[in-house]
Specification:
single chain; Cytochrome Bc1 Complex, Chain D, domain 2; 7 helices; globular
Length: 113
Amino acid sequence: MRISVIGMLLAAGVATSAQAQDPNYARNLAATCTACHGTDGRSVDGIPPSLAGQDKNYLLQTMKDFKAGKRPATIMHQHAKGYTDQQLEVIATYFSGLKGGAGTPAPAVRGSY
């Protein structure tokens, strides 16, 4: 039993240090949000809401509320459950550090291919 606890702690340390060494870790986690919230968290016309430039604590609490089922959603409650609280904090920090603003529509939406 003692060896398995030590092994788990060492494995957790390796995962944490691997995350700290990957400069793209936060961006990679946040990339899963682009399908709905737009490239770099800037949605087109604000639907769904843009994430870029939002307050970190607001984003984090909102994602935790989705994860806990405290906030109604069509898909976010399921999406948020796929992350640890530490990963949610990384995502919130990432988006809060980006410049806010509206996203650019895809070329097909703009009418030019």
